[in-house]
Amino acid sequence: MGPWSRVRVAKCQMLVTCFFILLLSLSVVTMVTLTYFGAHFAVIRRASLEKNPYQAVHRWAFSAGLSLVGLLTLGAVLSAAATVREAQGLMAGGFLCFSLAFCAQVQVVFWRLHSPTQVEDAMLDTYDLVYEQAMKGTSHVRRQELAAIQDMFLCCGKRSPFSRLGSTEADLCQGQEAAREDCLQGIRSFLRIHQQVASSLTSIGLALTVSALLLSSFLWFAIRSGCSLDRKGKYTLAPRACGRQPQESSLFRRSQGGPTHCLRSEADAIGPRRYSGSLRWLQDNDAAPGPLSRHLPAHRALQGRSPGGLSGCPARGLSG
Question: CB neighbours of 228 closer than 8 A, spacing ≥ 6?
């Protein structure tokens, strides 16, 4: 495969990769929106606690998701435009965006490996605080928040052998609510599905980002070295040196050689004719032609000397 074919294949792969990165950005922004405005996460975030441990994690996840979406989208747009227009600066900008997006995704992967249960622990701690304050206190606000959480996750209470609430906890789940699962297990089940989707998107994003980094670097070097596909038939005008006249065509130079040469060449091409005239009158093109009687003697003298005209070069003139 020649260099032109490799560049063409790299361009096609870059455009396809940018398309999939845009689809990935759309998926990530959908997930981030559902995470921030979703009912399951919002009911935990809206718990009116003095110190809600889930709010800080929620804001951090939302900011990181939007930043990652912006970097991926900007990198895909710049790289696609640079591939079509063969612009070196745009390709460098796309490479920079993909590099930052790669670093952000690596940081997310490191955070998931280092603290795999941080989000889960924050949500469970928030539920525990709301649950204990609702069971101990007499405020209806805490009970309403607890009821909203349980209705959203379709759970009721928490079954713990270390509970110290006694009959108050036993009276919480009655009737149909008693058949619901434990809220701790319900929250864990919901977060497990959400985290699996997030891990899948992160893995796909890393693969696409690495591919985009390799392709953008290869195309940047190809554009810099001039191995493009669209620069055909383009010429540049070199500056003319001072005091140098532009080159003239051969026909123009022959026409400026003088009327005598032009007439001689024309006479040689046409051949002798029965017409002859005054050579001086034809050569003196600056002066105005005189009266006809002035040229008649010269015309007779020329006819008497040579029937073919002067020097064998008949010129066009007036016949006697």
Answer: 7, 86, 222
**Is the pTM above the cut of 0.85?**
no
Residue 223: which of 81, 18, 82 has the closest Cα?
82
Rg of the chain in Å (alpha carbons) = 47
CB 54 within 8 A of CB 126: yes
**CA distances (Å), 194 to each of 62, 113, 161, 201, in order?**
14, 16, 29, 11
Q: What is the pLDDT of residues 60-104, one digit of tens each?
A: 889 999 999 999 999 999 999 999 998 989 999 999 999 999 999
CA dist., res. 54 & res. 45, Å (int): 6
Please name the residues in contact with 190: beta carbons below 8 A apart, sequence gap of 6 or more.
Answer: 40, 153
CB-based contact 187:124 (threshold 8 Å)? yes
Tokens representing residue 20 in the block:
């999939």
Q: Mind listing the pLDDT tens digit for each residue in 96-151?
A: 999 999 999 999 999 888 888 888 888 888 888 888 888 877 667 888 888 888 88
Are 134 and 141 in contact by the 8 Å Cβ rule? The answer is no
